[in-house]
């Protein structure tokens, strides 16, 4: 029997579960085209603000032995550009496009969602509630009253499929409290995790941080965060309504990492730091490696093992 990697999220079918993580290789039409031309199952656009932004001063990304640190500061071409790209590509027989939005205020989030609602776009929309890097803007998702406000108001008018990008949580009481809130809404999915916010990496030779914005504070990604990402995927799958899907993001560098995210309950899996360093060819390697892991274990579909983490 051939091995099948197809997966669906909120009724959207992907040929395989692998996508870029928002923010990596997805800021320009060229980069988005390159992901779509690769072996990826789909693409997510760079989180959009209403107006284009240059982002923070450089250096603002640094690859590290076990991952990366970034303080990009939401550099993006603006909402109109990404909505146009998503609309133009939704009928193509290639892979689905997820449209990511990150307003700088509640009003901006709602303004963009209204524009999507009025548009021809019918695909998945992701509201990024967890950008750690805009000076003076705390992460919405660490303020549960703010999460409630944005979802209450969004679902007053938004009838398309909406997911949210969440930061890592580190205490089980936070999962319990936020799950009770999220389960009240018709969410399509949650995406866990965004980068682990406000780490500090320093170069002991120069006695300076390795990135410049925010005094060197930035979001940590890659292998450093894989255990945290897996725990968040698992914790959400244990608590959220089964109708709410999950995208697992964090620390994916090999097919085994993808397998582990799926075992924790992810429906799709996104690749951030490793895509930044290896480029879109990584998707062919990861699908090959995931297929090999499944073959060794005798699994034929993702459903054979998704969410079936064994307990000790
Ligand atoms: O642009 C960024 O600095 C950024 C964003 Br919006 C995000 O959600 N996560 C991240 O690590 N960087």
CATH class designation: Alpha Beta
- Low-pLDDT parts are none
**CATH topology grouping:** TIM Barrel
- The number of strands is 16
What share of residues is helical?
A: 25-40%
Average pLDDT number: 97
Q: What's the shape?
A: globular
> Kindly, what is the distance between the CA atoms of the first and last residues, rounded to a whole number of angstroms?
31 Å
The CATH H-level homologous superfamily: Aldolase class I
| Computed Rg | 18 Å
Regarding quaternary structure, what we see is single chain
Biggest sheet: strand arrangement: 3-16-15-10-9-8-7-4
Class by SSE composition: alpha/beta
Strand content: 15-25%
Helix count, per DSSP?
9
Secondary-structure arrangement, i.e. CATH architecture: Alpha-Beta Barrel
**Bound ligands, named by name, code or SMILES:** ligand RRO
Give the total of domains: 1
Describe this structure in words.
- This protein has helices at 29-37, 79-89, 106-118, 144-157, 172-182, 226-239, 255-264, 273-278, 282-297, and strands at 7-9, 12-14, 18-20, 43-44, 61-64, 67-70, 97-101, 124-128, 161-166, 189-192, 196-200, 202-203, 208-209, 217-221, 245-249, 268-271.
- With 312 residues, it is an alpha/beta fold.
- The protein has a single domain, classed as TIM Barrel, CATH 3.20.20.
- The relative contact order is 0.17.
- It binds ligand RRO.
- Ligand RRO binds next to loops.
- It is an enzyme of class 1 (oxidoreductase).
- Its EC number is 1.3.-.-.
- It holds the Pfam family DHO_dh.
């Amino acid at each position: 029997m051939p091995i099948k990697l197809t997966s669906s999220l909120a009724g959207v079918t992907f040929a395989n579960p692998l996508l870029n993580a928002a923010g990596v290789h997805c800021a320009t039409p060229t980069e988005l085209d390159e992901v779509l031309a690769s072996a990826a199952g789909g693409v997510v656009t760079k989180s959009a603000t209403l107006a284009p932004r240059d982002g923070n001063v450089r250096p603002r990304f640094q690859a590290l032995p076990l991952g990366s640190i970034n303080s990009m500061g939401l550099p993006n071409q603006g909402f109109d550009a990404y909505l146009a790209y998503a609309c133009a590509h939704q009928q193509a027989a290639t892979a689905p496009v997820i449209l990511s939005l990150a307003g700088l205020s509640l009003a901006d989030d709602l303004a963009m969602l209204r524009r999507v609602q009025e548009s021809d776009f019918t695909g998945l929309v992701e509201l990024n509630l967890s950008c750690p890097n805009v000076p003076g803007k705390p992460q919405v998702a660490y303020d549960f009253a703010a999460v409630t406000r944005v979802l209450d108001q969004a679902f007053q008018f938004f009838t398309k499929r909406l997911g949210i990008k969440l930061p890592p949580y580190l205490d089980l009481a936070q999962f319990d409290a936020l799950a009770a809130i999220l389960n009240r809404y018709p969410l399509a999915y949650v995406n866990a995790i965004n980068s682990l916010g406000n780490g500090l990496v320093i170069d002991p030779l120069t006695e300076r941080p390795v990135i410049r914005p925010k005094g060197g504070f930035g979001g940590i990604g890659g292998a450093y965060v894989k255990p945290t990402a897996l725990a968040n995927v698992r914790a959400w799958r244990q608590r959220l309504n089964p109708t709410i899907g999950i995208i697992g993001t964090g620390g994916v560098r090999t097919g085994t990492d993808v397998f582990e995210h799926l075992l924790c309950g992810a429906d799709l899996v996104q690749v951030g730091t490793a895509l930044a360093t290896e480029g879109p060819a990584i998707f062919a390697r990861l699908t090959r490696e995931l297929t090999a892991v499944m073959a060794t274990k005798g699994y034929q579909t993702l459903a054979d093992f998704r969410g079936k983490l064994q307990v000790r």
